[in-house]
Amino acid sequence: MGVNAQARVDLDRFWDTIQTSARIGVGRPGGLARLTLTDEDRQMRDQFVNWCKQAKLEVEVDELGSIFACRPGREPDLPPVLVGSHLDTQINGGRYDGIAGVLAGLELCRTLDELDQQTKRSIVVVNWTNEEGARFSPPMAASGGFVGRYERDWIYGLADDEGKTFGDELERIGYRGTRKATGHAVDAYFELHIEQGPLLHAENKQVGIVCGGYPSHGMRVGFAGQTAHTGPTPMDLRHNALVAAARWATAVDDIGWDFAVHDGKATAARLVAWPNKAGILSETSEAVCDVRHPDAITARVMAEKMRRAAFEAGARAGCEVTIHDEWQWGGDIFDDTLVDSLRKQAQRLDYDWRDIQSQAGHDAYFLAMKYPTAMVFTPCKNGITHNNHEHCEPHDFEPGLNILLHAVVERADR
Amino acid sequence: MGVNAQARVDLDRFWDTIQTSARIGVGRPGGLARLTLTDEDRQMRDQFVNWCKQAKLEVEVDELGSIFACRPGREPDLPPVLVGSHLDTQINGGRYDGIAGVLAGLELCRTLDELDQQTKRSIVVVNWTNEEGARFSPPMAASGGFVGRYERDWIYGLADDEGKTFGDELERIGYRGTRKATGHAVDAYFELHIEQGPLLHAENKQVGIVCGGYPSHGMRVGFAGQTAHTGPTPMDLRHNALVAAARWATAVDDIGWDFAVHDGKATAARLVAWPNKAGILSETSEAVCDVRHPDAITARVMAEKMRRAAFEAGARAGCEVTIHDEWQWGGDIFDDTLVDSLRKQAQRLDYDWRDIQSQAGHDAYFLAMKYPTAMVFTPCKNGITHNNHEHCEPHDFEPGLNILLHAVVERADR
User: Fold this and answer.
1) pLDDT tens-digit series, residues A314-366
2) B354 lies in a domain?
3) Given CB atoms, is B231 within the 8 Å cutoff of chain A?
4) Residues 291-320 of A with CB under 8 A from B
5) CB within 8 A of A51, min separation 6: which ones?
6) Does B324 touch chain A (CB under 8 A)?
């Protein structure tokens, strides 16, 4: 059983799917703007479902819009092996972030078809809805729902900047499926992803085996003040919610600099206010910030400083503070057996690989809360991502794809 | 010549017009949301023009949409006396801010009609377009255009948050007139306005004679950075435009606190960023801030600190800084003769009045750059304004209206 040790994916075929995807939801030159649950996302989903059906995969869509394309195993009642990532992008996103991971799963199934191989366990290729969080906060909403971290109806209620909800938009694009969002048996989850950092490229490594993720903590905080005239209102009678949010964003950036020497990072990613107009103090505001550090204890210290800074900023601006959401991910969360199996395949296939830690969030982080999980990183030029200049060459993917193929088949034959 | 010393406006009639206005562009309970060049603004303009025509005033609209309603004098070729303010409001505006001043001019003409009095010079009631700056920045755009401070076509190009331009929206609501925007002879400009501060109410004064305005300096600043992933990008390689704007807003607020002990104020009124989403660093941002102080030299010190803070914030966040607009107003800009004439009428009519400085910006500030100008302030409860809880009673207006009546007539008979 299992595939021949010489088996390899078809890199040209994989690259063709990437190029087709790169024409759907085109953004700035070379990039994509395919936000989740938009018409462009639907178009890409339709394309992906077509590909899956051509590959004789059985497609199901769950209540959160995530797509599960199953290649049945010989013992289809056993928990399957999942391989996935996301097809949505940032507003100024690249062509590979997330996309490569979903299409890697598809390519793997196509390769097995050509080899006429059936694994013992089923293999399921997954596209998770709203990984990016670029339209609906928080990110990785659907994979969070899959492991029971978020309630389905809470996710449905998430609203974008125009007030449209996740649930309504999911319905609108026709991807509100019937498969239950959560409670599924899963044997293992694999995710291939571009590194989104500069290490592999800088060190000329062909592939990274991800041991874990930078422990990360994020928060969405609301500030409530009071409108008033910008002129006559004395400083000590002001309740300018815009100032509260700006003070928090500034303080969070300071936290990042304080811990930068050991690779800590802090980000003010989003700030909105109302009315946010000349001449009037803002009544409400909201900001999204996060902190990351390779050391889990330090990351928690940073998170605690970030939280305290929100209340200090609110107090300083005379505004009430509400923590709307909090999330965290990362740490040494991946499964040792799976990580070892990836290392073993990298060794056996004779690629120049290294262990690596992820600095970005991934659906794999949520999956790892409940199921054995591991990730493969492929190089991307200078680590540029969330930018239309994100760049990869076909050969950047070849080692990762073949490692994934053999590790997934090995696991699925277990 | 002149009106009888016993002549008084009709307070009930004035109040009726205020109440009619309060039903157009209704906002939160008790307030208005009548942003400039919206359908609601058009509806109010139509109502105002109707009233003017009923009062036999000759209505002209200029290239910037400002409405001039003329009550011809016996010597119509002499430069006229203007009485005006604005009918637009903030998004959470009150019923009196600006509106009372325009309708005071109308009431004054109606009173002269009843008295069958014709002044020597014409009296022109004016509604200035976009005083608030709540939709198009900068505020007081049309009065700035009237005195030649801003170019007509530059004003036409101002864009709101949806990218709609002042020029297009003016055309759309049918108020792009043919009267030249600038270059008009004006004998004097009077403006009645609610105080928008707490002094008159707190001291139980019936009316304020405005000697000048708090010197004020405002800026609209853009920051240019680069999108990137919020995770892996090291702090020293970030160009997060949102952080640049937040740092500037925070620094400007600090300037306000530094000078608060002598009644200085600084405001971060507006902050927008793009993409402004979770997971991605922002490429561009823009913020509007201003500083005000009763002492002109100190106000300039604050303005210089505000300007320097913009460049420091940009440098700290690795972003380029562009000052898109700058504006200033205030100082001892009003005409001594006109101010004295208002004081004299207050004395003669036996009202309990005081001299006062304006802390808000007004169209009168621009008019004063070119023409003899003065203002009358009427009390508003606790100084609350730019808020739906802005509150005035009919009796709050009676002294201001009658002072205005007699001072305008005296000037127009000159």
Assistant:
1) 999 999 999 998 988 888 899 999 999 999 999 999 999 999 999 888 999 99
2) no
3) yes
4) 292, 317
5) A17, A106
6) no
Judge whether residue B1 has pLDDT over 80: no
pLDDT of residue A2: 63
Scan for tokens 């190009």, then name that residue: B157
DSSP state at residue A34? -
Distance from the Cα of residue B269 to its chain's centroid: 15
| Amino acid at residue number B151 | E
Q: Which residues pair with B213 in a beta bridge?
A: B331, B358
Q: What is the CATH number of the domain that holds A33?
A: 3.40.630.10
CATH code of the domain covering residue B240: 3.30.70.360
Amino acid at A410: E
Q: State yes or no: pLDDT of A128 exceeds 60.
A: yes
Residue B209: inside a domain: no
Domain membership of residue A210 (yes or no) is: no
Cβ contacts of A88 on chain B, cutoff 8 Å: none
Find the CB nearest A275 among B90, B276, B277. B90
Q: What is the pLDDT of residues A170-186, one digit of tens each?
A: 999 999 999 999 999 99
Q: Which residues of A touch B386 (CB under 8 A)?
A: 227-230, 279-281
Backbone φ and ψ of B208, nearest 5°: -120, 135
Tell me, yes or no, if B29 comes closer than 8 A to chain A by beta carbon: no
Measure Cα distances from B393 to B12, B15, B101, B390 in Å: 11, 9, 15, 11
Contact (Cβ atoms closer than 8 angstroms) between residue A173 and residue A42: yes
Strand locations in B293-342 (E): 320-331
* A280 near B CB under 8 A: yes
- Determine if residue A395 is labeled as part of a ligand binding site: no
Q: Are strands A67-71 and A284-292 parallel, antiparallel or unpaired?
A: unpaired
- Both B319 and B247 in one domain: the answer is yes
| Cα–Cα dist B77/B79, whole Å | 6
Mean pLDDT of all residues in B112-140: 95
Q: Do A230 and B265 touch (CB under 8 A)?
A: yes
- The H or E element that residue B256 is part of is helix B241-258
B236 touches chain A (CB under 8 A): yes
Contact call for residues A108 and A133 (beta carbons, < 8 A): no
Token pair belonging to A217: 């903590």
Q: Which of residues 53-92 of B touch A (CB under 8 A)?
A: 90-92
Cβ atoms within 10 Å, residue A75: 10
Of A133, A276, A383, which has the smallest distance from its Cβ to B271's Cβ?
A276
Stated as kind and residue range, the H or E segment containing B303 is: helix B296-316
Yes or no, beta carbons of B386 and A276 under 8 Å apart:
no
For residue B301, the enclosing domain spans 215-328
Known binding-site residues of B for Zn(2+) equal 86, 97, 132, 193, 386
Mutate to test the interface with A, among B38, B223, B267, B357 (most CBs of A within 10 A): B267
Examine the pLDDT at B269 and tell me if it is beyond 70.
yes
pLDDT tens string B392-408: 999 999 999 999 999 99
Q: How far apart are CA B307 and CA A9, in angstroms?
A: 58
Do B90 and A242 lie within an 8 Å CB cutoff?
A: no
Alpha carbon distance A256, A264 (integer Å): 6
**Cβ-proximal residues to A331 (8 Å cutoff; 6+ apart), any chain:** A212, A213, A215, A296
Determine which helix (DSSP H) or strand (DSSP E) holds B120, and give its type and residue range.
none
Name the closest residue on chain B to residue A255, using Cα atoms. B235
Q: Give the Cα-Cα-Cα angle B15, B16, B17 (nearest 5 degrees).
A: 90
- Residue pair A376/A193 in contact (Cβ under 8 Å)? The answer is yes
Question: Considering its fold, how many domains does chain B have in total?
Answer: 2
Number of C-beta neighbours around residue A103 at 10 A:
28
Question: Are A189 and A375 a contacting pair, CB within 8 Å?
Answer: no
Same domain, residue pair B123 and B225: no
- Does a structural domain hold residue B347? no
Strand partners, B221: B287, B323
Partnered with residue A223 across adjacent β-strands are A285, A321
